[in-house]
Here is the input.
Amino acid sequence: MKAKVTVFPRREVLDPQGKTIHQALQRIGFDGVTAVRAGKCFDVELATNDAAAAREVLDAMCRKLLANTVVEDYAFELLPEEGAS
Amino acid sequence: MKCGVVVFPGSNCDHDVYHVLKHVLEQEVTFLWHGEEDLQGCELIVLPGGFSYGDYLRSGAIAALSPVMAGVRRHAEAGGLVLGICNGFQILMESGLLKGALLKNRRMRFECRDVHLRVERDDLPFTRGYRRGDVLRIPVANADGNFQETPATLDALEAEERVVFRYTDATGRRIDEADAANVTGSARAIAGITNRRGNVLGLMPHPERCAEELLGNADGLPLLASTVGAVGTLVGAAAS
Here is the structure.
């Protein structure tokens, strides 16, 4: 089973990378951009095909390693298997 | 005091700390490999600066899970001394031994320069060589030195007097996040904190890089000397 995990700085936390990217976008003419947050994305492949078990293990790995919950929020979604009927 | 300097893949200030402890302060020092839990009876554990695991994921995140950190955690819980410098501070935070997290510096730059620090605590094993209010000149060298925590935890750190060093200017005045002298942009200008018990210290600046008069600055020496209990020796050496 495949999953996509995203990790972003929490809303109330300063995001120097997102701010710098936002300024760069404005500099090259994308005036309509009102905010940018920079985060990380992980493609994770799991041995299990059980969705509930997968969610449980994904939540645990986010809390233990993939995200630093002092300053980051995380989210994940299970992806449909390619070729699945 | 028997001192252990932990070596992670990517540590690059390990030999600097080793040199100061061994040759300047004349202590027994050994390197401890990250893959071993055994701390070999060391009384002081130093987590040095560098780029452990290439700063992959987040600075210090992978190192915090290495076998040696299980030993360091037990050592800290038993009241043993642990000093984390720069990447070592990041590892202590990622391992949960200290509060906080470090973000990228406010100006998105690797800041490599001398900064001024004000000493906020002079009663810890690490800081008995200073007086509260002393202003030190000491180098920082980091890209992720921007200390952040939730407002509630910051208030708790202040209330429990766990802020040990703060960025300041040459006059030692209190500065905020936006002040130019706070090169990292750290919340409440925090440069170093301790745990509740006062036996674990983490700081971003590098005392080991300014610990010999020969190199033009020894403001960091009292920190390391005090930690190994050699303050008296140091005063004696300075007077002779």
Q: What stands out?
A: Chain B touches chain A at residues 57-58, 61, 65, 93-94, 99-101, 103-108, 146, 148-150, 185 (CB under 8 Å).
